[in-house]
Amino acid sequence: MNKLISVALSQYGVKEVKGAKDHPQILNYFTTMGFDKTKYSDETAWCSAFANWVAGQAGYEKSNQLNARSWLTVGTSTSEPKQGDVVVLWREDPSSWKGHVGFLIKESKRYVYLLGGNQGNSVSIKAYPKNRILDYRTLEKVA
């Protein structure tokens, strides 16, 4: 199994806490990147923080940014994606700054299945329509 997928799966089921409390592991995704946990909560969009945490734990390059579209400049674009590649999606509108990022599990004719954070407020596998894909990115190992 791909190292990125195995690290991401180790977090499967980590879920936001309803109310004023925050899941400590979600806060850890931010603090591992050097962000002050007092400025973030598990209500903050955290898909990119999760992807950065996974990539770092697995020894791969990271975006080091909290916006999903920051992943469009990490790794190498590929037209032949494989399991573990990063998938960057648009959210609301293709020209918006908003997006989503996750790791490719599999594809069907119309959907990509991503393992990612902040999917239904948890680390989960979810299907997204392929027409929302901005790019597939293959990450490189770092020394």
List keywords for this structure.
143 residues, alpha+beta, endopeptidase fold (from Nostoc punctiforme), 6-stranded antiparallel β-sheet, 3 helices
Shape: globular
| CATH fold name | endopeptidase fold (from Nostoc punctiforme)
Beta strand count: 6
**Overall pLDDT:** 94
Low-confidence stretches: none
Question: Cα-atom Rg, whole angstroms?
Answer: 14 Å
Structural features, described:
With 143 residues, this protein is of the alpha+beta class. The longest helix is centred in the middle third of the chain and has 12 residues, at 47-58. It has one domain (3-138): endopeptidase fold (from Nostoc punctiforme), CATH 3.90.1720.10. The chain is built from 3 helices and 6 strands. Strand 2 and strand 3 form a beta hairpin.
